[in-house]
Design brief:
Two copies of one chain form a homodimer.
Chain A: E1 4-10, H1 12-15, H2 18-30, E2 35-39, H3 44-51, E3 57-59, E4 62-64, H4 67-91, E5 96-99, E6 107-111, E7 123-128, H5 130-138, E8 142-145, E9 148-150, E10 156-158, H6 161-171, E11 177-183, E12 202-203, H7 205-213, H8 221-233, E13 238-242, E14 255-257
Parallel strand pairs in A: 1-2, 1-11, 2-8, 5-8, 11-13, 12-14
Antiparallel strand pairs in A: 3-4, 6-7, 9-10, 13-14
Helix pairs in contact in A: 3-4, 6-8
């Protein structure tokens, strides 16, 4: 396979900071070849929820997406954040098309059915419409996905953006050599949380177990690394975790995840 | 030309009423052949603006889209309303793709430059990306446009949905026989506002002048009819005003606008 594609996920640390977001979008728009952006939500949905008097619904310490919260995240993720990113990318000459998973039936999910906790309107990705995404890419379109999907029965569902990135990357790995970048607020997975420069350059299946056992990978890094290994196991060729600056600077620090 | 397309605009009377919206979307999804939906905003953006404590900005009696209001309409139109419509259409077997004018650079507009009133972030349509829309249609996609466009310089702009429908319809009139339906809360343009059944079946350029002079066409009908005649003058083959039920029932009352 000679054709490669970059799938890049950004989160709140970029989305909530206009200067960082603009710098990232400039870097992203300069990437050659086909590319896909997946964005999380950031703090704006919590801010709006508070402003309209919504109290976060928690159950056993986990946040629940009730109907009112689903409306807010749909507004903020698919509306405010997605369309502002698309407009900025268009101004930079990148032909972006913003989408939820409902659009073009791009990402179908199933409402989470947890034995103990009712998470509300939360969806787990069931299938990605690879043909639709490939057709858009073949026309020079850059898909920009927000973290909202649907169940094909008329219900929108709040969905983890890291998982969307992993599943979209995996769905394209038959047709492309896929590089998946998880951008976050650190230079990579750290050996010591107190030392920003203690980046672990490579993690493979073996060292992953050691890092888990030693507690070095914990908390928020657990689901992120699960998404990385899921992508690799489903055929994604390369997965990196690090700062947004890594995406078009091959010598920039990062943690490379391997099988 | 043998291929025809329907461009249908719905407004607040449908959007704000879940029963009416579902009935409309069922009718819409049953329409054969290529079709495009354009939706306005309804009351939700005003409700949400109030909830977050925004005071409508007025200037000489006209509503101004300041930055905070633009954020709200982007959230409500491009997020909440657009994505719920798309999810419902997908559940009905219609392969909808929701878009603002920024997506795929579908609709580029210019910030309104009024000699007396600064309308804020309001855009007047400058050009429609016909190639992009036709490519989507050729793949069986049903574009669903909200009333947000962009200026290709990174700025989103609040844009009249009737005008978007008129301009999108006009842009396709070289390639298709275009039927443009403006759905609203009446069976058509009324001879007497007090008699819902006094529908004027046909309006052409000549009778339009008479109706204007007599004051029968006034207020909100003025810009709507301007958009109708703009569409016809730019090549749209057929324009109708009436209830949503007219779209797939040829014998249903309506006002047909002609040159």
């Amino acid at each position: 396979m000679s054709n490669s594609i970059a799938v890049i996920k950004i989160g709140g640390n970029v989305i909530d900071d206009n200067v960082k977001l603009t710098a990232f979008l400039q870097d992203f728009s300069k990437l050659k070849g086909p590319k896909i952006l997946v964005h999380g939500g950031g703090k704006k949905s919590s801010q709006f929820s508070k402003e309209i008097g919504l109290t976060p619904t928690m159950h056993q310490g986990r946040r629940i997406t009730d109907a009112a919260t689903l409306d807010v995240v749909t507004m903020v993720y698919a509306g405010l954040i997605n369309k502002n990113i698309v407009a900025q990318l268009q101004s930079l000459g990148c032909n972006a098309l913003g989408m939820s998973g409902a659009d073009g039936n791009a990402i179908q999910s199933v409402k989470r059915n947890h034995p103990e906790i009712d998470f509300g309107f939360v969806g787990d990705v069931e299938k990605v419409n690879t043909d639709f995404i490939q057709t858009q890419l073949s026309q020079g379109i850059t898909p920009v996905f927000c973290a909202i999907t649907h169940n094909k029965k008329g219900q929108l569902l709040n969905t983890n953006a890291d998982t969307i990135a992993s599943e979209v990357a995996a769905s394209l790995s038959n047709a492309f050599e896929v590089v998946l970048h998880y951008c976050f607020e650190k230079k990579g997975v750290l050996q010591s949380v107190e030392d920003d420069d203690s980046v672990i350059p490579f993690i493979d299946t073996t060292s992953y177990k050691t890092l888990l056992d030693s507690g070095i990978i914990a908390d928020g890094m657990l689901p992120k690394l699960k998404n990385c290994f899921d992508a690799l196991n489903k055929g994604v060729q390369s997965v990196n975790i690090g700062l947004p600056a890594m995406i078009n600077n091959a010598s920039y620090p990062r943690t490379q995840i391997k099988l």
